[in-house]
Design goal:
This protein has seven helices and no strands. The protein is mainly alpha-helical and 215 residues long. The longest helix is centred in the C-terminal third of the chain and has 52 residues.
């Protein structure tokens, strides 16, 4: 039994040690991803600094008038494009205007709104994944070096102990940083994308609630 326990311990130790490099690499990759997401997040905030309900209503009213009076979808798309805060939102707005007064257009508008919502959820999944993955990688990166650190302590190797503890605590900090930044971005993005969907629903309702187009 002692030999079996020793074998199990040896196998577990080597498996954990084999994970050391992948965990460190994944932690650095997660840090790089969260920095890229942070840059994109700042761009999203800058684009939405001009968001205003009055501006949205004016654009929609103007676009609806252009559609009813001239049926000019290209001009209406350019008008509502001024209140698009992202590329997916601009694409959806173009599609909504293109469906104006077409048979089955309302159903396709509703489908476009649902697809936009699903796309927003996919974009949110990246940071939501990092919220959990960052601390998990940080914890693994903390625990894995502790075993050789304790072995170095038992052998009186202070340098081995200090190097492993430095790695362990550094990875902990990085993992927590990734999780905290990703959590903050996820909270704000959830609200931003919800507002985008609300704006798109307002546009869709305005387009479908207007008077019938002229023959």
């Amino acid at each position: 039994m002692n030999a079996l326990a020793a074998l199990e311990n040896d196998v577990i130790f080597h498996v954990a040690e084999a994970l050391r490099v992948p965990v460190l690499v994944l932690t650095m990759a997660a840090l790089a991803v969260v920095l890229v997401e942070l840059g994109a997040f700042c761009v999203e905030l800058v684009r939405r600094r001009r968001r205003d309900y009055g501006r949205l209503e004016t654009a929609v009213t103007h676009a609806s008038a252009v559609l009813r009076e001239r049926g000019d979808r290209a001009s209406a798309q350019a008008i509502v494009g001024d209140v698009a805060w992202s590329a997916p939102m601009a694409s959806t707005l173009d599609f909504l205007v293109a469906q104006w007064a077409l048979p089955g257009g309302e159903a396709r508008m509703a489908k476009a709104l649902a697809d936009f919502d699903f796309g927003s959820l996919r974009r949110l999944e990246r940071t939501r994944l990092l919220v959990r993955a960052g601390p998990a990688l940080g914890l693994m990166g903390t625990l894995i070096p502790l075993s050789p650190a304790l072995a170095g302590l038992a052998a009186g190797d202070v340098q081995e102990l200090s190097e492993n503890l430095r790695v362990a605590f550094s990875v902990t900090v990085l993992g927590l940083l990734v999780g905290a930044v990703a959590f903050g971005m996820s909270l704000v993005r959830d609200r931003l994308y919800g507002q985008d969907l609300s704006d798109l629903e307002f546009v869709a309702n305005a387009l479908t609630a207007g008077p019938e187009p002229r023959a």
